[in-house]
Specification:
The protein has a single domain, classed as lambda repressor-like DNA-binding domains (434 Repressor (Amino-terminal Domain)), CATH 1.10.260. By secondary structure, the chain is mainly alpha-helical. The chain has a two-stranded antiparallel ribbon. The mean pLDDT is about 95. It is globular.
Amino acid sequence: MLKLRVSEILKEQGKTKYWLNKSLGMSYDNLCRMINNKTKSISYANIEAMCVLFNVTPNELFEWDFEK
């Protein structure tokens, strides 16, 4: 299963979900679903915005979870 590493990146960079929420301008509920990998899709605009905000590539933003 492909999953987002947003929680790990936030922790590594010392940033909060609140900061990300304000930076992305999305609802807090949608952000939490996305961070917890409970969403079925993510827009390219949000992927690109997170890459820019975190200064990472899409490869660093996602990881493959072989256990699921």
